[in-house]
Amino acid sequence: MKKISKLVVLAGAAFTSFGALAAFSSSMSLSQVDNEVRAAFSRGESLNSVAGGARSAGVAPSWIVSSMIGQGKDSCSVVTAAVSAGYDANQVISAASVSGASSSSLVSCAIAGGADPTTITAATAAGGGGGGSGVPGGGFGFSAPATFQIPGGGGSISRS
């Protein structure tokens, strides 16, 4: 009888562990992902555990990142956990930046999660093209015009 009760306890523990990992599904809606993330955090699961379970089940990175941040988790910690779980760093950073965090600050969080810094694409502030592509003289920064006026009537100064 003791063997049967031990077997039942072990089977229950295995089912509980499997249930926590198998709760996510690639066919879940965003609200279902939100509900599962909420339930996982209420069970005391870590960001890494939740991100790993979602990744194993094929949940989209934008959905799991959005859901974890929506549950009040820190953007940087979410990015680190999602990248550690194997999600693409660029997709994770993009999803987390929607919450208002700056992409440049999230890059270091992704690197902390194990992302290869050489594979992370820098976001451009205005989209399209490289930085400074419309600035006279090219590159980053500011190029002064050939002549400019000094306020107060001091004439103009020319640059040679």
Descriptive report:
It contains seven helices and two strands, in the order H-H-H-H-H-H-H-E-E. The chain has helices at residues 2-22, 30-42, 47-57, 61-70, 75-84, 89-97, 103-112; strands at 147-149, 156-158. The protein has a two-stranded antiparallel sheet with strand order 1-2. The chain is globular and about 35 Å long. The termini are far apart. Residues 1-22 and 124-144 have low confidence and may be disordered.
Offer a quick outline of the entry.
The chain is mainly α.
Q: Can you lay out the helices and strands and say which pair or pack?
A:
Elements: H1 2-22, H2 30-42, H3 47-57, H4 61-70, H5 75-84, H6 89-97, H7 103-112, E1 147-149, E2 156-158
Antiparallel strand pairs: 1-2
Helix pairs in contact: 2-4, 3-4, 3-5, 4-5, 4-6, 5-6, 5-7, 6-7
